[in-house]
Amino acid sequence: SQTIHQWPATLVQPVGSPLSLECTVEGTSNPNLYWYRQAAGRGLQLLFYSVGIGQISSEVPQNLSASRPQDRQFILSSKKLLLSDSGFYLCAWVGVLNTEAFFGQGTRLTVV
Amino acid sequence: KQEVTQIPAALSVPEGENLVLNCSFTDSAIYNLQWFRQDPGKGLTSLLLIQSSQREQTSGRLNASLDKSSGRSTLYIAASQPGDSATYLCAVKPGGTSYGKLTFGQGTILTVHP
Question: What is the reported pLDDT for B36?
């Protein structure tokens, strides 16, 4: 069966520090991968998506970047965090048939 | 631009009640609609997926319906239990070359009292 892993679960980082969040998927190949952010009191906002290795599309201008070095690995990064980067970050995947979406357990990022 | 609205924003009911959560979307050209459950501080758990050609899907005490032409979906929860307390989110996937990108509603916070 397919599973999706995200880590870390929680992270507290000072302003100006770098960020690296990792997401890996098991049990599937060539998935579409997504990074969403859920700010307090708001819905989910799509940040990045990837349809293949090295292929990244950004949905909103921001301080973050994404990379997909392997088929089932998706990384969210920042060189210098801002207070506004705080939020709940969720990784998701959709299979080749473009049907159901599955989400990881999320990373709670607090920038202080 | 697709917009998804969920009503009510919050709902508090006693255990055992049947309840309905509503989701509406502005662009009827969708590929599918998915209902999720989110517990506090956790990720999203997929509950039901309805393809655009389907009218409803059922899983246990949950039943989701879709009226694509009117831009509406409902999630019906029968005989609610305290364990059903969570935030329920609906999301639509557009048709065409959308790469599976979802548009989410703001969610309905459900509290079921013992």
Answer: 97
Alpha-carbon span B25 to A96, nearest angstrom: 25
- Could you give the C-alpha distances from B91 to A66, A88, B100, in angstroms and in order? 23, 18, 11
The 3-state DSSP composition of chain B as helix, strand, coil percent (nearest 5) reads 5, 60, 40
Question: How many CB atoms lie under 10 A from the CB of residue A78?
Answer: 20
Interface residues of A toward B, Cβ cutoff 8 Å, are: 6, 32, 34, 42-44, 46, 49, 51, 57, 59, 88, 90, 92, 94, 98-106, 108
Supply the DSSP string of B5-46, one letter for each residue.
EEE-SEEEEETT--EEEEEEES---EEEEEEEEE-TTS-EEE
Sequential pLDDT tens for chain B (114 residues):
899 999 999 999 999 999 999 999 999 999 999 999 999 989 999 999 999 999 999 999 999 999 999 999 999 999 999 999 999 999 999 877 667 789 999 999 999 999
- Please tell me the total number of residues recorded for chain A in this structure: 112
The answer to whether the CB atoms of B46 and A101 lie below 8 A apart is yes
